[in-house]
Amino acid sequence: MPRKISRYLFKVANKNIWWCDYCNMPILKQLCPRCHEKGRKLILSLPGDVRPAWREDLNLMRNIIDNEYGNGIGKKLLPDDKIILINKIPWLDRMEEIIVDGYPIGAVFFDLTRWRFMPKSEGAKRINCYGGGKRVLIDEGAVKAIRNGMNIMVGGIKSIDGNVERGDYVIVVSRRGDVVAVGKARFSSREIRRMRNGMAIKVKEIVDESKIKENSSKSTWSDFLKANKGEIEERSEKTIKFISKTVDRYWSYGRSISFSGGKDSACLLSLVLEAGIDKVKIVFLDTGIEFPETIRYIHDFLRDLNVENLLIYKKSRNDFWSLFERLGPPGRDYRWCCKSCKLSSMQEIVKEYLNGRCLTFLGQRKYESYWRAYEPKVMETHYIKGQLKVNPIRDWTALEVWAYIGIQKLSVNPLYFRNYVRIGCFLCPASDMADLLNVSKTHPDLWDKWERALKCWMKNKGFNEKWLRYGLWRWRNPPKIWKNLIG
Fold first, then answer.
1. What is the pLDDT of residues 412-471, one digit of tens each?
2. Which are the contacts of 331, defined by CB distance < 8 A and separation ≥ 6?
3. Which domains does the chain have, with CATH numbers?
4. pLDDT digit string (tens) for 241-287?
């Protein structure tokens, strides 16, 4: 793992989520506010920024699991009557760890062409119990070898399900029916049956011999909100005090709230309004490549809060599509889109509406990226003259943000319920391939326009089809790992 990512994960490792086994739900302090029993610390992959799985998230994950292990297995693994959490973790593309009954059962991930599921120990046991496929039966000698850290050789395999393909994650089972390991098939079942020797399965995780930790207790999101309301109110009070003190310290500065239409900025806006900050402006910068749902949501949300009169709706003077013809696609290492379509508009607002210098409250959180993890709560920005950035919810987790939204009964952008994790420009180069595939499905007209533009640029520059298929347009100079992967 690159040192930069390691430092980031160490810095943002979440230490504030437990699980109550009696209520079968997450809690934000160790003693459950509902039943007063001591909670169990959640063991999560870093950074541990969990969020609730909504209906469309569950449908997507169930379909992925069904495609891998058999119809109906997804619904059994991810039932409707439990709180299920998702934890986005670093990987080449998008990967989501799934937590059920307070235990990670596996992760769904996008392998640049399709979604896959990789079981962990608890998930493998449950798949085996539910009669799921892709099982490999091994002899007792192979069991001992696996426990001693060895991979699975052809000679140790007694039988293998016929639908196993190269790269599949398989459930390795002993002759007694116990799950021994999760492995990755190096060959298909057809190939393995023809082999006389050699390594067939790479062991990814050795499964302990404990029983399945399935919890029969039911739980709902409403139960979670009621139980954790006190913690969220306490968290909110501290944040509101910070907002008020910051405004008092910089009393002569203009005041603005950056509102993107995402969940974090909705939470932030509500907190600033709770703090009673006067003479504040709510700023939305329309880049011209926003989702239509976002535009509608912003006006509806501010109208519901009766603050639409505070909105400064600024559309970029620079047309993205005209700039694209000259500059080509924006990239993670070439973010001309933000500079031309967003930052220049904010500079105009600071000068015109905010007396040349201002506090700008943003809904940025340290869990979102390496750079945001190392930003302080108040900082000058080199991109916009006269602006001080303020990040009041910097230390909030996604779970706390969603809890605050639920308790305050705030509306959120409907895109969150269509498998979107973040809300921004629909063609943002910071997006994963999984996110871009989602755009092509939910907004085919927008995606067709973008794809036609990319194909035209690709043809003029002499790039091959892989440049488009694997999203290499997202960099001017793609990282070495991507160049090696694509070939």
1. 999 999 999 999 999 999 999 999 999 999 999 999 999 999 999 999 999 989 999 999
2. 429, 473, 474, 475, 476
3. 134-213 (2.30.130.10), 221-420 (3.40.50.620)
4. 999 999 999 999 999 999 999 999 999 999 999 999 999 999 999 99
Amino acid at position 470, single letter: Y
3-state DSSP percent of the chain in helix, strand and coil, to 5? 40, 20, 40
Q: What is the Cα 126 distance to its own chain's centre?
A: 25
Helix (H) or strand (E) holding 293: helix 292-304
Tell me the CB-side half-sphere exposure of residue 483, using CA atoms within 13 A.
Answer: 6
Output the DSSP codes for 406-456: HHHT----GGGGGT-SS-SBTT-TTS-HHHHHHHHHH-HHHHHHHHHHHHH
Instruction: State the DSSP string of 145-191.
Output: HHHTT--EEGGGEEEE-TT--TT-EEEEE-TTS-EEEEEEESS-HHH
Which residue type occupies 390?
Answer: V
This prediction has a pTM of: 0.94
